[in-house]
Amino acid sequence: MTEAPPLLEVTDLVKHYAVRGGVLRRQVGTVHAVDGVSFSVGKGETLGLVGESGCGKSTVARSVLRLVEPSSGSIRLNGQEITGLSKAAMRPHRRAMQIVFQDPFASLNPRMTAGDIVGEPLSVHGLASGEKKQQRVAELFRQVGLRPDQMKNYPHQFSGGQRQRICIARALSLGPRLIVCDEPVSALDVSIQAQVINLLIDLQRQHGFSYLFIAHDLAVVAHISHRVAVMYLGRIVEISDKTELFVNPRHPYTQALLASVPVADPKARRLTPVIEGDVPSPINPPSGCAFHTRCRHVMDRCKVERPTLAEAGGGHQVACWLNEGTGRKG
Length: 330
What we know:
This protein has 330 residues and is of the alpha/beta class. 28% of the residues lie in helices and 23% in strands.
């Protein structure tokens, strides 16, 4: 029995931004926002993408959706290459990919009613109009836990959690196969976060779509994800099943992230922090392993050779020279 192909397959994704200065606005540098990222998302799977602020998570999300144009690399959706497609050729694929942004208020048009916001994609793609569209929007409101009579209200009349539910309903309207969640609960109260996360899980069970779930909160990622990818300075340094990653983190950066998670029990034994210093500038990233400037296990090899993601056993992939010889290949 052959393994089903992934819904989304990203290979060597790169996104660089030019830094310009001077009177003539000449290029004086390059921001390495995303620097050779590869991963896949299976059908019905949730891949959590975690890392510190500024590591390139949101740039990956926008590049995958072609909201920003990648500098190089390959993006395949359901087996079809979409990286170089024109805007017209991308239009059918837009229905299959949707996004839920971090700030629900900033991503909603304050001049439109909630019903018009959710129904707009149906009009743009010519899927429904008139009474049929109203019925579809009402059904979407029910699916996300809102009342159909709230369709006539404006965004400012909703709470933060309700606004995010509107954003989720809008993402669902076209029947997507992939939803990118760009830190969708980080702007919400903790109690509301749990409600929204549970809603996302329930919707996935009902409809079978996939999530690329971006967050910096490891507890949230552990709750919703099937697999987790850890990013550092534009690169993925570790990918694994979530249970394996939390029980047996291999990369020193992943170990540091887990050590930084607050523990409610003051008597509980904490992991020893293994990270020092600040994140280097993406304009001038370090040679070799990008993490070597902050790693207590640094070796001479780390400073000159860049490790690639390779198998460390059981589907666990790590980009670290420490794992050479522990199931690592290539």
